[in-house]
Amino acid sequence: MNDDEMKISVLSSGSTGNVTYIETPQHKVLVDAGLSGKKIAGLMDSIGRDINDVDSLLITHEHSDHIAGAGVLARKYNLDVYANKGTWDAMASKIGKVPEEQRYIFDPNTTKSLGDLDIESFSVSHDAAEPQFYEFHHNGKSFVILTDTGYVSDRVAGTIENADCYLFEVNHDTEMLRMGGYPWPLKQRILGDHGHLSNEDGANALMDVIGNRTKKIYLGHLSLHNNMKELAHLTVSSMMQNKDIAVGHDFQLLDTDHDRAAHLTIL
């Protein structure tokens, strides 16, 4: 077995909290920390990993379901924290003091190398100060996280095409959202260009970017109130099959949970 591999686990994904774990031989990284430190430590334990071994935390944007535990984790486990300037400014008062030597600026649309892990940032359209997501590269494999955006621009699609693995947003079923109890302004925000991808939007965007290297797609950031795991999965797989894309043959379509970690996966 090759020991020089990238391993990932979607620890939590959904409207209530988001955390993803990425591991290479040299680095152990979290993307976002949208749950309590205690909960994240427990999810790490459930995949056989120790949160004390994590060295870096990357933040996508300042919404609470992405940063709730960020300050606590940074201080308790001495993590290096990476975010762009707009996000640092927007989240500073929410996460408390992070020591200066642990604070790093990661500009949008740039690449940073952490030893054996190259990380590419890309801006997205979401109602946050300066939202960005990431593509991780190690040993010829790539993993894309994109879970909070109102649409996928041609620029973003070009950046993330033909990755080995995706964690991709399917936030809501449009009809469930329209018929549900949210106030109309909130519904408009979610449906707008700075909101979230619906099941159909996510499926269409995925079909534009996946390629012959793509082996795994995790469906993420599902709304607790406006979606169901089975509905999201069925919508995406049906739309792909209608376009003769071989779901389950060429690649796996995988579900995520807000309270249970996905198995640690080798890319």
TrEMBL record:
Q: Which segments constitute the Metallo-beta-lactamase domain?
A: 16-194
Q: Which SMART domains match?
A: Lactamase_B
Which InterPro entries does this UniProt record tie to the protein? Metallo-B-lactamas, RibonucZ/Hydroxyglut_hydro, WalJ/YycJ, WalJ/YycJ-like
What PANTHER family does the entry give? Answer: EXODEOXYRIBONUCLEASE WALJ (PTHR47619:SF1), METALLO-HYDROLASE YYCJ-RELATED (PTHR47619)
* Record-given protein name: Ribonuclease Z
Q: Which organism is it from?
A: Pediococcus argentinicus
Source organism phylogeny? Bacteria, Bacillati, Bacillota, Bacilli, Lactobacillales
